[in-house]
Amino acid sequence: MIKKRVSINVGAGYDVHIGPALLDTCGETLRQVLGECRLAIITDSNVERLYLDKVKKSLSSSGFESVSLTFPAGESSKNISTLSAILEFLAENNFTRKDAVVALGGGVVGDICGFASSVFLRGIRYVQIPTTLLSAVDSSVGGKTAIDLEAGKNLAGAFKQPEVVICDTDTLSTLNETELSNGVAESVKYGILFDKELFDEFAKSDLKSLLDDKEKLVNMIARCVSHKGRIVEKDEFDNGERRLLNLGHTIGHAVEKCSSFSVPHGHAVAIGTSMIARAGEEKGLTECGTFDAVKTVLEKYALPTSCEFSSCELLSSSLNDKKRKGNKIGLVIIESIGKCYIKEEPIEALESYIK
Ligand SMILES: NC(=O)c1ccc[n+]([C@@H]2O[C@H](COP(=O)([O-])OP(=O)(O)OC[C@H]3O[C@@H](n4cnc5c(N)ncnc54)[C@H](O)[C@@H]3O)[C@@H](O)[C@H]2O)c1
Ligand SMILES: [Zn+2]
Fold first, then answer.
1. 153-166 per-position pLDDT tens digit
2. CATH of 4-175, one of 3.40.50.300, 3.40.309.10, 3.40.50.1970, 3.40.50.1820
3. 291 and 255 in contact (C-beta within 8 Å)?
């Protein structure tokens, strides 16, 4: 069976293991990385039902003592109350700095567990076991952790790298089409940013053949993770090149906000990416034909490329984007597929991209 390991050289460094059936051996992997310790598995209500027993079984057969806590699935749980419940749970179970947290789930579980681990006892170790495509290719790697506040998404958080990431590609088979396409949007993003060959593979493939061909899936995730790793290694704290990963996100976040978050994140990013491709072409910044190529690929994976909101609505939502610095905003422009750059634009110029 195909398995891949990608090393991320940030802080002490860590590996991302990608392959089928890795949950069955996660105990052994964690034993090698963490040594002797106790584990707190944190998960959500959907993932608990599907995978908690399997993980517990593997951990206990490797001699780990573990406790687990489940919170209701969904972005609405990524808040201060859940964070507080996790911290109290760790304290009640007498967790020490020697012990570790296991984040079993998608980006919501990963983000909140990472943040809890960064503040509990001023920092304990944590590991990521991503179970969505989005968390596999994006949120489980790179060490950005957060919770949402009433005032907005991801407004409180910390940089905290995991000790290891274990991505069992078999878990992706239980995702629904929306969750899968969400992950595809972020994966295609790496192709547009850095890797024309990866983009072309998405163009040739489709969701079904991607999932059916285990080798292809493992290779695709590994390729995305390598791109993310390389960027995070150069710019862990998001002051420079890491901002490229925001391709499609400035407009995407505005779409999410305008829809009161009923448009899922990946879908919003697909809309944002398409709009920036079209605006770039109109302004002569982007190679002709790029918009069509991007649109064709995204639509192939049931992703939207336009939205019902007016430019006025989108603009007023983007004006309080947290990525904004003073009166400037760093927009990621596509030069051609596989080549992008950040263009610092005055905030007033944003309107001309959204039109
Ligand atoms: N830290 C980062 O760098 C980063 C990057 C991108 C996104 N994010 C964050 O990630 C979150 C989105 O992540 P997500 O899309 O994984 O959301 P999610 O964690 O809410 O998972 C989506 C849904 O899928 C369910 N699910 C998870 N695994 C499953 C499986 N294997 N089978 C069936 N159902 C499963 C979940 O219970 C949930 O209902 C957002 O909060 C976003 O802000 C963080
Ligand atoms: Zn994103």
1. 999 999 999 999 99
2. 3.40.50.1970
3. no
